[in-house]
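Re: weekly structure request thread

Next one in the queue (214 aa):
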Amino acid sequence: MSDQHEHWQRTYRTHPEMYGDEPSEAAVYAARLFRERGARDVLELGAGHGRDALHLARQGFRVTATDFSAVALAQLRERADAEGAGERVRTLEHDVRHPIPLPYRSVDAVYAHMLLCMDLSTQEIRDLVAEIRRVLKPGGAFVYTVRNTDDAHFGSGKSLGDDIYEHGGFAVHFFSAELVETLAAGWELRDRHSFEEGELPRRLWLVTQLLPAC
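Done, posted below.
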């Protein structure tokens, strides 16, 4: 078990539902985009305690919500069942350093809020995007957010190399515009824009990329 895994498990035990009940701005956007594109089955990577997964389920999507924290997923499962959304939400404990345990071309859309910017090397991120491409159907949409190199924490704290810095026990990989462009090779990069979230505030990219239809 990695230090980051232990840290997140402990954090979710100590601060259940730490991100609140309201969906993120990114999830509201993603739900709208996925609906416009006719998606039905959505994979969320790094779902945490589920505020965004539950929003997607409320919008009528069938959601597979993954995270490497069993504590967070138990909180998500409890909320989904309490809301009567249990049939539309499947939880799956999964570390994104390993292949996604879903079949080839099995989901219509993939969503990841602040997951790709965890303690992942650039090569691990490349491998993950390749896995996302594998499980997406042709014409599928991938929406993700990551902290970017304009963020106030970039370049400060404990440097772990590869544009990864640790603050308060949380390791973050900060994304340059060039890295976003590189990850979109072979996709249609529909949109990339910067926005702010939280009290710091964090500075994030919101990225939308689409697979060719065939």
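The chain has a mean pLDDT of 91. Strands lie at 41-45, 62-67, 89-93, 107-113, 136-147, 158-161, 164-167, 170-173, 188-197, 202-210.
Next request, please.
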